[in-house]
Prior knowledge:
Blueprint: H1 4-7, H2 21-39, E1 45-52, E2 58-67, E3 70-78, H3 87-101, E4 106-112, H4 117-122, E5 126-132, E6 139-146
Parallel strand pairs: 3-4
Antiparallel strand pairs: 1-2, 2-3, 4-6, 5-6
Amino acid sequence: MSSTNDSQRFEELEIIDAPDQQDVQFLDDRIYEFNAARTGIADARLLAIILRNDRGEIVAGLYGWTWGRACEVRILWVDERLRGQGLGRRMMAAAEQEARARGATQIVLSTHGFQAPGFYRALGFEAVGHVDDYPVGHQSIYLRKRLQ
């Protein structure tokens, strides 16, 4: 006897370079459901810190999440014209404060060698791994800051 899954027919694979955000969110939700079911940890919360100018345009921002007593910063960006004014530090400090309030004991993130590894090290992050030639000729660096 064959199961229902055995009799399903699938269409051709789609390779998409600009996926619909709803499709991406669907996939993200399914992975989270799987992870929460496997670990028993279902406390994930998104985290965003946005700075807008007086015209309402985003000029700096941070995006990530907390889950399982950890905070992951996925994106930290400051408009090039505003760099060097402490906005990145302010956003990271706010993220750390919120992560602590949510019970996180560490913050993790990745950066590239040509981005801001020195910035993160100055904030107390330590390198815990790297991947050479990602992208080619450069290095991807994985960092962690333990929250005491």
